[in-house]
Amino acid sequence: MTADERVLEAAARCLVILRRYREVERTAETRARMVAEIEVIVGWLMELGLLTDQNQEFILKSVERYLVEQYGLVIGHSLTTQFIDAFETY
Question: 60 with 13: CB under 8 angstroms?
């Protein structure tokens, strides 16, 4: 798997996590689970040396674009904000 493929895979996995999070009742436990799962993805990218500014921007923008297209501005931006918080806290 190339570096670009791994970055695409990371973005896709983040989207799976966020879609699942969107479908469940929002509680402190479900939010903590979502954050922990996103942190695993970030940690994986770091271990591979792929968490560059360029790759991070690509993932964040790709996820945001998908969420806004899929769920609309209000929900999409809300999910994006939560995703960015989780992604950048690692």
Answer: no
Domain ranges of the chain: 3-88
Contact between 59 and 10 (Cβ < 8 Å): yes
DSSP H helices, the chain, are 3-23, 28-47, 53-88
In this structure, what DSSP letter does residue 16 have? H
What's the pLDDT band for 89 if we cut at 50, 70, 90? Answer: confident
- pLDDT (0 to 100) of residue 23: 94
In our burial notation (b when 16+ CB lie closer than 10 A, e otherwise), range 35-61 reads bebbeebbeebeeeebbeeebbebbbe
| 90 has a pLDDT exceeding 90 | no
